[in-house]
Design goal:
By secondary structure, the protein is of the alpha+beta class. The chain contains five helices and ten strands; from the N terminus they run βββαβαβαβββαββα. The protein has one domain: Peptide methionine sulphoxide reductase MsrA (Peptide Methionine Sulfoxide Reductase, Chain A). A six-stranded mixed beta sheet has the order 9-8-3-5-4-10, with helices on one face. Strands 1-2 form a two-stranded antiparallel sheet. A two-stranded antiparallel ribbon has the order 6-7.
């Protein structure tokens, strides 16, 4: 089976030993602030802030849906889950880094819960498509949720199971979302023009829309 799709996207994960070597330092300037929320791009955050990393296809539309959620203190887009240190956008799009386009979301759990954040995640992309999201094809578009504490892990797993059951009832394939701890992974913030892209370009490309299939309430 070919590792490449007809549209040119890589549809098999690169072997970490064959991934691009990357570099010790970022190849570009990383901005310091989120221009929509007027907050530090990567923190520091107030005590008690939770951080979750979510990949749901092209990170432009994904970030906008997450920064609109009440209680979200910060968002940033970047690359995560692969082997190449400090990759560029072009390198990530080659499928040879193993990274997926990811949104870091920092939120106040007293205002919005982990469940609330994951509700936006599950309901605004198709988590059954493997290495693609709609017409965007490649391992860099895979669905993923990387948690940072045990409570998040429990909610991620529980919502994945419940949403998978709902999707199965609707005739969809099983969820392919990568579920794992962020421990041992590095979030590499993307180039400045990608950060809050749809705020800078309101009519830019956005493949995300609510699917109309709701996440059940946790019991």
């Amino acid at each position: 089976m070919s590792i490449w799709n007809l549209f040119g996207g890589r549809v098999a994960m690169v072997d970490p030993n064959e991934a691009l070597p990357g570099r010790n330092e970022p190849a570009y300037r990383v901005p310091t602030r989120n221009i929509v929320l007027d907050s530090p791009l990567l923190g520091p955050w107030p005590e008690g802030t939770e951080v979750l990393y979510l990949a749901m296809g092209c990170f432009w539309g994904a970030e906008r849906r997450l920064w609109q959620l009440p209680g979200v203190l910060g968002t940033a887009v970047g690359y995560m889950g692969g082997a190449t240190p400090n990759p560029t956008y072009d390198e990530t799009c080659s499928g040879r880094t193993g990274h997926t386009e990811t949104v870091m979301v920092a939120y106040d759990p007293a205002v919005t819960s982990t469940y609330d954040v994951l509700k936006v995640f599950w309901e605004n992309h198709d988590p059954t498509q493997g290495y693609r999201q709609g017409n965007d094809v490649g391992t860099q578009y895979r669905s993923a949720a990387y948690w940072t504490d045990d409570e998040q892990a429990q909610v991620v797993r529980a919502t994945a199971q419940q949403y998978g059951e709902v999707l199965a009832e609707r005739g969809f394939d099983p969820i392919t979302t990568e579920l794992r701890s962020a421990e041992g992974l590095t979030f590499y913030p993307a180039e400045e023009y990608h950060q809050q892209y749809l705020h800078k370009n309101p009519h830019g490309y956005d493949c995300h829309a609510n699917t109309g299939i709701e996440l059940p309430a946790l019991v």
